[in-house]
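USER: Fancy drafting a protein?

ASSISTANT:
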Amino acid sequence: MTTPVIRCCKQQLANAEVHVVTKSSFRSVLQNNPYVSKLITFDKDIDEAYAALKKENYDVVIDLHNNLRSRRLKLSLGKKSFTFKKLNVRKLLTVTFKNKNILPDVHIVQRYLKTVESLAVKDDGKGLDYFLSESDKVNTNAISPNLSNGFVALVVGGSYFTKKIPVNKLIEICNASKLPLVLMGGKEDHEIAEQVIAKTTNTFNVCGKFSLNQSASIIQQAAYVISSDTGLMHIASAFNKIIFSLWGNTIPEFGMYPYKPDPKSKILEVENLKCRPCSKLGYGKCPKGHFKCMNEIEVKEIKA
């Protein structure tokens, strides 16, 4: 979701070099991005990158993270900086009082772009970027020849339990689909996908079998994508896919809903649930024990 800032800075600032600092685990997200002049990564702590960064003698530092680590980096480099303004207090109040009106009706991408507004960088309206190399591209026939006439990418994974689509709901989605489904997630989601496959037909489990960029290639080829609030949902946005996004304990009003997906996309959620949102991130289990925010979502609207 920071890629519009990278692209707009590169294209709109004369002779700009855009260097990006990120964790090594996220290198693949940007390694093929033509707007990134240099990608600098670290494994555990930003200290690992200090020496390389100081040698560059940057004109400007753009901090889109605004955490303790990025503040240390800005202090170390001692350069003019522009910092993303977080909404942590408003989010906390929203979680506490369950009042969505506390939050501004602005996507986080637009707020990232506002960070560089004083540099005369403007939104070009082109949405998110995700670039793949030829070696990243997956031949889906290798998963199954049944996918050759179209398939649905169904993301079963998620960073927290309360963001994930429950197994019973996954089964309901699969059994209603006219197209075969590819179940996607990490190695930790493999067993969940197997539970779904045991009670459905024409479903294929690729959880943990592909790299992030290879998973992005599968998303790119899908007829449409079904996901909860996940990174793959945002990758699907970058490819302008039709996205059916299911929202559990988090809410779209936090500003991280699909950005500029296909207009046929839909957000599915349980409105006016008194316990929602219960967190700005998520939990390992439903604090109330009923998980109504996911279990009561109507999935009959999922059709393209």
Observations:
- The domain at 136-295 is CATH 3.40.50.2000 (Rossmann fold).
